[in-house]
Structure formats: C-alpha cells, structure tokens
Amino acid sequence: MKDRDKLRDYEWLLQRLYQRIPPKSGSAELEIPEPEMIQIGSKVIVRNFRRIAEKLKRDPYIVARYLLKEMGTGGKYEEESGHLTLDSQIRRDTIMKFLKMFEKTYIRCPTCMSIDTRLEKREKERIWFLVCEACGAEQPVKPI
Ligand SMILES: [Zn+2]
After folding, report:
1. Mind giving me the DSSP string for 2-16?
2. Closest CA relative to residue 144, chosen from 121, 124, 116, 118
3. Which fold has domain 32-107?
C-alpha cells in the first residue's frame, strides 16, 4: 500500500469514528427500551416496564399513570414484578408513541433540550415543575 492510500484510509477511519460518537451534551437521544409485551386473554403485560421507567429516570407509578390516562385504558403497575398490566389490547408502537410524548413534556428541557432533568412537586404537590440540572430552567408541567 502506498503512503498516500494509507493516509486516506486513516482519514476515512477517523471520520467513521466521529460519526459513531454520540454528542456529549445532555441533549443526546434518549433511548427508550422497546416494551416487551405478552398478551394474556384481553390484557397486555409490559414485562420490562420498571426498566423503561429507570431509563427515563422517572417514578414508574408516574409513568404508568400518565400512560393509562393518555391511552384511556385501565391497568396497573406492580412494584414486585416491575410489570405494567394494561386492561386492553394496546400495540407496542402506541405505547412507544406515548412514551415519546412523556419524554417531550416530562423529561426534555424545553430551554436547552437536555434530558438531565427532574420533576419537582410544590405547593402540596399541586404544582409540578420540570427542573433542568443542565441549565437551571424551570418549566411548570401538568400534574399527572
Ligand atoms: Zn435545560
């Protein structure tokens, strides 16, 4: 191999490397795990729900309450198993769609787009804020 070709290869490799490194800022993509679902009769169980909530860094009860309300279905989260049981046939892509909406409102900072945020309940839990740990912005959000 000629030196010039070697150099070209090196640049190509570097370029590939840079493309693979995610941006360092907190505005990185939030990778929501795919819901692992099983169907039992007319119910659907999301087996990895606790893991999904952990990835979102939110209380699983809050995420569950949001999903049930927004999707208009009954169901419940069980702490022991980490499962979310839904009382109706809900498709995986529907759950993903609502998880992304949850991310948009209750996780991602609207000011700097960071996902390093937390939910704070104030005024006897009547008023909720999305507080950003990256830029300090506070955004009132609808209580769930
Ligand atoms: Zn922010």
Report:
1. -HHHHHHHHHHHHHH
2. 121
3. Defensin A-like (3.30.30)
70 C-alpha to ligand 1 centroid (Å): 26
Distance of CA 137 from the midpoint of ligand 1 (Å): 5
Asked whether the whole model's pTM tops 0.85, one would answer: no
Q: Residue 23 Cα, ligand 1 centroid: separation in angstroms?
A: 16
111-136: pLDDT as tens digits: 999 999 999 999 988 999 999 999 99
Residue with tokens 């800022």: 25
Tell me which DSSP letter residue 28 carries.
S
For ligand 1, the distance from its centroid to the CA atom of residue 95, given in whole angstroms, is 26
Q: Where are the domains of the chain?
A: 32-107, 110-144
Is 14 exposed, middle or buried, given 0-12, 13-18 or 19+ CB atoms closer than 10 A?
exposed
